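TEACHING EXERCISE
Course module: macromolecular assemblies
Task: Read the component lines below, then compare them to the predicted structure of the full complex.
Student: A.B.
Group: 4
Components provided:
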Amino acid sequence: MGRKILLVTTDQQRYDTLGCNGGTIARTPVVDALAASGIRYERAHPQSVVCMPSRSTILTGQHPTTHGVWMNGVPLPLDAPSVAALLNEAGYRTALIGKPHFQPFLDPFLRFIENSLGDETVPTGGSHRGFEHLEFATHGPVGPLHYARWLAAHHPEAIGMFYRVLDDQLQVNADGGGDTSAPQVHVNRVDRGWYHTDWVANRTISWLDSLGADDDWFCWMSFPDPHHPWDPPESEVGRINWRDVPLPAGYPEKQAEREAILDAKPRHWRMWYDGSLVSNYEAPARWVPATLTADQVREVNARNAVECELIDEAIGRVLRRIDERGWNDDVDVVFTTDHGELQGDFGLLFKGPYHVDALMRLPLIWRPAPSAGSAAASVTAPVGLVDLAPTFCTIAGLPTPEWMQGASLPTDDEDAAARGFERVLTEWDSELFGVDVHLRTITRAGWVLTTYRPGTVHNGTEGELYDLADDPLQRNNRWDDPACRGIRDDLVADLLASLPPARTPKLLLEAPV
Amino acid sequence: MTASRASIRREVRIRRSADELWEWVGDPSRLAEWWPGITACVVDGESRTITMGSGLPMPERLLTIDRLQRRFQYRITAPLFKEHTSTIDVHDLGDGTSLVVYSVDAEPSTMALVIGGAAGNALQHLRSLVEGTD
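Instructor-supplied answer key:
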């Protein structure tokens, strides 16, 4: 009997939403306790700031340029390598419960396996990408996934209570609600027990209950929240009064200041803010960020925090069940998310081609199995989600295969220094209705540098360079600062040398998301 | 601002003659054979109704079936679409291969990508079928 692995992911959660990371709005005692007894990473970055590429990195241990999922809507090939398959072949029981998103959701033809399982939880052939048990959910109550089918079968009256994720043009909905009419905010009368957060935990507990006491297992529990829409059960919204929520440090309250900051960045920032450019599908195309008010930021953040609390409590229920099964000493728990959320930074919401901490700095906690005897630590060295798959191999006592491009997460900064954790890379490539944007980013030695490749609104000479120590909010773009020319050239060279070669042929965009 | 309509194009080069490919593409009743996710396809005069894997029917009107140009055009008439025209062209490249081009113009724009994205996958599937690599 070896160490078991519980991977907990959320969707679109910021670093600063956890108490252990300095968050003050949401109460997250369960994850905070994991951090206190485990390893808390202070500079964990995704390799893409949107779901499908990032989740594909978690599964494959590869950068997007290698696994080929360059944007939402590009399906991960079915023969892509998978750490779950490695673990399953090594004898692990495996499950993926919650949001998958390795294939597009917008799929009326049901071409993709993730959307065509019906009520089945065991895929044809016994496993899918190495998972022998699948139960899927996403942000809404409609569609072909298990959660929507369960809700339709057992609580059909609740379906209409949720926010409608897409509008009648199948765009990400811009409709606002709540007290401030903030986009994607909605009063949802659904019973808490019927909400997808508790459903994911319930289904995880049910699967764990099906296992034998001596089974080794790898369970990826994947919550759809706190991704928008911000429509948590209304019964829970009173936990946090949005009027008491402070504005985030990253939100410049004065319009002139906000716009001056944006104007110092490559021009797609200001163009999106003004509503003159939509470069990607993930944010509501009909919403103009310049209309965002301070109160809307407060209400979004309050509801987001409620969703974070519900997730924390759901994780607590799963951990209690693990303890009741007598497994706790042998279970590694990894908590993270796929990417961040702007949530008011620079006057923006949602996500896009904006490689700043709001979207790139992720919560990452690894509580090694207590039986391993690891010491608690905080790691400041840069790490990435690309390092998760090798970490699972290490936990399971398996060698890291050559196709994985990361390394097992360091257990402290000394370990990080000894094993060369110096840099982390993040990519963005989007092509939507004639608009293309391409970013390559390196974070190293307290600096974050982004280069732009030629595209619809960039000529390839633009860039961003921020000193994370002196400018933690990334307001002062040093790209053109002569005093920073040396570090800029050094980082650009390192970035170019570190990026893996691009997969050929390029995979096709098959859906918007 | 995002455009309310969009135009998407996908293409594939196939090692078969244009005439052979036209037998597939130019026959409106054969779509379900080469488009993954279409479970049924019924032609009635100038109308065609396909059934998607989700079970949803999609009514269409056939616009052009031109054997000489090897051009096939149809319009989806479902209420979700404010506008739609899809065009499939088979080009003879003169070396025993052909280029099949699938163009989708639609409003709302999202549906152009939904149809066009699936069409790109269908063209790959068509190549596998006719080249015998499936």
